[in-house]
Amino acid sequence: MISNHEIDYHIYGEELQFVEIELDPNETVIGEPGGFMMMDNEIQMQTLFGDGSQQSQSGGLLGKLLNAGKRLLVGENLFMTAFTNVGQGKKHISFAAPYTGKIIALDLSQHNGKIIAQKDAFLCAAKGVSIGIEFQRRLGTGIFGGEGFIMEKLEGDGMAFVHAGGYVIEKELKPGEILKIDTGCVVAYTAGVDFDIEFIRGIKNWMFGGEGLFFAVLRGPGKVWIQSLPISRLAGRLQQYAAIGGRKEEGGILGGLGNLLDGRE
């Protein structure tokens, strides 16, 4: 088994973060296209088919196609970018968060080599980390679980970095301990956590509760990462505001009066 490259890092910022990764000579980090921010000289960039892990490169051309195709199912790009320090001393490269929230550093060696995460959460990782797919075991969970039937699977023994919206809280669940969460607020969890859904009871709750029809039910043991602001919720609010809230006369007297009447002031 080939271990992952060992990388050092530092996360900067509060609401809009970026992670700076320190590479020793010949060390490599892989990232999603579009996440790159800046890098020192003598770091070489290479586009890879798949995730660049040993797993994705096995099995010849067919194996590469299958592993790369899995990435499309979780909303990721067919290609990834590898950044290698080809110089003599330590070099630095940074990756930026795509929207307001937090970057979560995950040491896979401390989580039995596997983390299951929401789609589009992956930002970057040490070379050797495999980014694959995780099928929900229960059909109902896949259909109504908020993240669909397929989630993202990070495997290996190195560092991986994912991004979540708003504030992120980490909770450790004891064996048999249950936590109910809004389906969109689940960022990631360890492999030992059982993920299921629960139908919200009561007709009034369905119609007027405003919280959807289902809870995500997570049962320990294991660790769970939860976000306060899923990007889907933020996008929905912005779309709603654009559809019914915008006024051309917002800078005038009529706009101000309208804002008072509908509670926006």
Q: Care to describe what's here?
A:
- By secondary structure, the protein is of the alpha+beta class.
- The C terminus is likely disordered.
- 20% of the residues lie in helices and 41% in strands.
- It has a single domain, classed as Mitochondrial biogenesis AIM24 (Double-stranded beta-helix, 4-Layer Sandwich).
- The protein is built from six helices and 19 strands.
- It is globular and about 60 Å long.
- The strands form four sheets. It has a six-stranded antiparallel beta sheet with strand order 5-6-3-10-13-8. A six-stranded antiparallel beta sheet has the order 11-12-9-16-19-14.
The CATH topology comes to Double-stranded beta-helix
Query: What's the number of domains?
Result: 1
Question: Distance N terminus to C terminus?
Answer: 61 Å
Which descriptor suits the 3D outline?
globular
Mean pLDDT: 78
Fourth-level CATH superfamily: Mitochondrial biogenesis AIM24
From the alpha-carbon coordinates, what is the Rg to the nearest angstrom? 21 Å
Per CATH, which architecture? 4-Layer Sandwich
Provide the helix percentage. Answer: 10-25%
Strand element count: 19
CATH class: Alpha Beta
Major sheet summary line:
6 strands, antiparallel
Can you count the helices? 6
Show unreliable segments: 139-148, 204-210, 247-258, 260-265
- The proportion of strand residues reads 35-45%
Question: What is the helix/strand order?
Answer: EEEEEHHEEEEEEHEEEEEEHEEHH
**What structural class do helix, strand and pairing data support?**
alpha+beta
